[in-house]
Design a protein that fits this description.
alpha/beta, 5-stranded parallel β-sheet, 5 helices, 5 strands, 33% helix
């Protein structure tokens, strides 16, 4: 079982479409991870350019490469989804990554990177998929009430 020790450092990267600048998702994630005793480092390619487009593929690949090479980083989380990860692959040096393998977590179309990272970079990879549903109700609904309702569905 994979476990992080206190003060492990998680690199937050973006191989694909990039998150909008000003999004509160990354600061909230950092705060959560830090509440668990983990440290985070956010790489610039995680965010879109000022024009609202993904960072150039070379920049995204360079950040991933640095995250793997850094002795301070214990795992890499790719927080972006979309098919933009496909164009990053030719810019990664999988031989160098193989010298410093560390867990890589991704979702969505990042599977285009997961297989080569695992096969040629000897990186342990984790693919995650999640769904989120927001529900508005007429009456206040507690988390416990929601779990009971869902268990009976």
């Amino acid at each position: 079982m994979l476990q992080f020790s206190p003060n492990s450092t998680i690199a937050l990267v973006g191989s694909s479409d990039g998150l909008p600048r000003g999004s509160d998702a990354v600061p909230r994630l950092c705060a959560f991870l830090e509440s668990l005793g983990l440290r985070t480092v956010v790489f610039p390619s995680l965010y879109q350019t000022a024009a609202g487009t993904p960072q150039p593929a070379e920049r995204r690949a360079a950040d991933i490469q640095v995250a793997f090479a850094s002795p301070e980083v214990d795992a890499v989380f790719d927080l972006t989804g979309g098919d933009g990860a496909n164009v990053v692959l030719p810019h990664l040096d999988l031989r160098k990554i193989a010298h410093t393998p560390k867990p890589f977590f991704g979702y969505s179309d990042v599977s285009a990177l997961l297989n080569p990272l695992q096969d040629f970079g000897h990186v342990p990879v984790f693919y995650c998929h999640a769904e989120s549903v927001n529900i508005e109700t007429e009456k206040k609904l507690t988390a416990k009430d929601a779990r009971v309702m869902l268990s009976q569905a």
